[in-house]
Amino acid sequence: MARDMSDKEILKMELEQLKKEVSTTRTPLLANCAETVTFVEALLPDDPLIKGVPDDKNPYKGDKGGCIIT
């Protein structure tokens, strides 16, 4: 796409993109981190990777036996 455009057209596109980026509202990193921590901590009680899966809901737990690595 850029190969078919003149240098002037490419510069015009870059200028338009920079204008869009300048008008984008930005939040401080600290605020974003705080929101992320709050979000993760709110989901923590239901997270199966942290809490584990109950045996009655675990499709991989059953009478198949297990595997022991020695």
UniProtKB/TrEMBL annotation:
Guanine nucleotide-binding proteins (G proteins) are involved as a modulator or transducer in various transmembrane signaling systems. The beta and gamma chains are required for the GTPase activity, for replacement of GDP by GTP, and for G protein-effector interaction. Belongs to the G protein gamma family. It is a lipid-anchor. G proteins are composed of 3 units; alpha, beta and gamma. GO terms for biological process: signal transduction. PANTHER family: GUANINE NUCLEOTIDE-BINDING PROTEIN GAMMA SUBUNIT (PTHR13809). Its main location: membrane. This is Guanine nucleotide-binding protein subunit gamma. InterPro entries: G-protein_gamma, G-protein_gamma-like_dom, GGL_sf. GO terms for cellular component: plasma membrane. Residues 1-70 form the G protein gamma domain. The lineage of its organism: Eukaryota, Metazoa, Chordata, Craniata, Vertebrata. It is found in: Cell membrane. CDD domains: GGL. Pfam families: G-gamma.
